[in-house]
Fold these 2 entries.
Entry 1:
Amino acid sequence: MKNATGTKAPRARKDQLIVKEVRDDLLVYDLKTYKAHCLNDTAARVWRSCDGRRTVADIAQRLQRDLKSPVKDQIVWLALDQLEKFNLLTSRTPKPKGMPQVSRRTLIRTGATAAILLPLIVTISAPTALAAGTAITEAVCRSRFPTDVGGCGGNPCSDKPPKTCLANGNQCQCR
Amino acid sequence: MSYGLRVGVRVNNRKALPYVLERLPPGWKPAKSPVVEHLYSVIMGDNDPTSNVRRLNLVYWDAARLVSSKDWNEALDVFESQVQLKVAEYARPWVFVHAGVVGWRKTAILIPGLSLSGKTTLVEHLVRAGATYYSDEYAVVDGRGRVHPYARPLGIRGPDFRQVKVPVDQLGGKAGSEPLRVGLVVSTSYRAGSKWRPRKLSAGRAVLELLANTVCARSQPELALTTLPKAIASAPVLKSVRGEAEETASAILEELDSTRTFAAET
């Protein structure tokens, strides 16, 4: 989507997500990929500002006002990179040509901002019920099928350490 | 009936019944209604080695065969694992987190973690240090974020990694019976020679730590993401690798005591 000035503006994805605020963090659970993301305050603010109309400069300005601290466009670009990587945007602004890769390390080293203000997204893959279970014996592993919901589970095999319960053809085995 | 889930079990031989009952989840009780959500059939084979025809031990979940084995204990292991997992996944409104749990001065200490990360060993040492035993397998969290007991005998592993079931009283401890608020969450795993140097996680990161060990994380994410933040509402969440369990257990109890003293003073 393009905004009033004709530039493409980032837009946050809304569908197939469960969003929960937990104190200063925002948890976003992706029902398509079974991944759960924890956005820190800065990343959450950038994500919520992505309405398809605001430009990167607009978002940086808004962030600066909210955080009461100087915020460079690079911080927004860093957040957008992460949000895109985790499939939390439906559209984003193409980076200006020749713009160098932005990283947390560069921003800290150049003193662009305090580390605490940098956007951060931590992600986990939600486990299947089987994988969240305990270690299993080889017999339990063999009782499962790769076609089951959750497959073989990938649990550690207690009687065959360090093997785990994995698919082998149409059977589950400690491998 | 276990944690509100009705599970039916039928056997072909009266002799099998005590073995089967021993493998049911802790706290189970007979259901009044004959209607069940899951039905298991346990068929005890002919374990007579002198017989020419040997019938196998079988376990079915509804119509699906789960195991067919000459070894009766192997069949029971499969039955136990499957029933406990079904209860953990489908019991409502409970959220089962794969974790060790002990009670300390009317609050719970949760130790979420994968199998073989050293949870049971840490729970064992916390119990030996005076904590009340709640579980070495699941933290059972209710809709208000309180943790309930799942006090099966501890599954302590020997050098060959096989589990031996040890009742908590053999460790000189006792099992808790009342639900507790969570006072501390400890995310840790054993690494030989490591020091316990915990760092505190933000609330969101803390929920992720629990979610990564939650049985219904995929099947009921909404329930999990509503319940887990309540569980850690007033609990710090610490993360660190650990060395020997005995010294880590002392450090954890000291940490919880100091947190509570600080909270009381402020």
Note: Chain B touches chain A through 46 residues (CB under 8 Å).
Entry 2:
Amino acid sequence: MAGTAAVSREALTAFLLRLADDHLILGHRLSEWCGHAPMLEEDLAMPNMALDLIGQARSLYQYAAEVEGRGRDEDQLAYVRRERDYVNCLMAERQNGDFAHTMLRQFYFAAFMQPLWQAVTSSTDEHLAGIAAKAEKEVAYHIRHAGEWVVRLGDGTEESSRRMKAAVEALAPYVDELFESDGVSRAIAEAGIAPDPSTLRPAFDAIVGPVFAEAGLDWVETPYGQTGGRQGRHGEALGFLLAELQYMQRTYPGMRW
Amino acid sequence: MTKNLIPLWEVFIRPRNGLAHKHCGSVHAADEVMALQAARDVYTRRGEGTSIWVVPSAAITASDPENKDENFEPALSKVYRHPTFYDIPEDVGHM
């Protein structure tokens, strides 16, 4: 990445929280499958991926807390903010739906994150580059695993194909938000910390396209996408998720394992 | 029905270079690609391996437990077959 402009503490914190919230919220969603997956193999595969995401979230929250410098720690950032303070993309908070829906959501998010992490490995921010180096390998597996399921369900039985097509319809309005650009993302890009999401669409399409082709799925254009997550405007799904996610820290403030 | 679509695979893991792949269990999967992924997720979560093999369970021909006596007992009395009379050079490594 080229830029080396200075970036404000606020912008860097905001950027880190977006990434961290994406990973925590989606990781929590995936973890909801634990004990409910259609087969034992997936009952381990999904929590494995969830743990990858939550581990990445943890590194990002720790770093965000340090950059923010207001005395909050990773737990306070993850567990005791209010709903409107979470800046995850809306896709991450969507209910799991069926297995096809969960796998397609995972595939989309991984296809968004892989090019981002890849670019961030050569970030001007060395701490973030370190997080990316680890995350890059984890997300590569998520693409492979979720992608193989998208192919097999899309090009599987009549029922699996119907369900995967329904997932494509249901998630279509949440894709564009991933690639939104604003003052924060531009400042981060200009400082050479991470690419602006708007530049990642071709890489995303290059990952999704061949999988859709193999799966016999058609891309669904949506007249207008859902947006607002990056500004803290969420769907009702997030409130219920946070009620469960935050329960322990709300009930026993400052609790540690 | 699910049995036909999602058959059983035997999983072999090699813990590190120089050792042999060792049978460690089985997984259900639709095909060999998914079987490898399932094996990775189920059996290498704690850094157990550097390589995985999967084999369709149906492709394995097993000895009949009923023939166990005639198969294996005759070897028990032939201790001279054990290579205990040599010193194995250290460079040979794992045998």
Note: The longest strand of chain B covers residues 8-14.
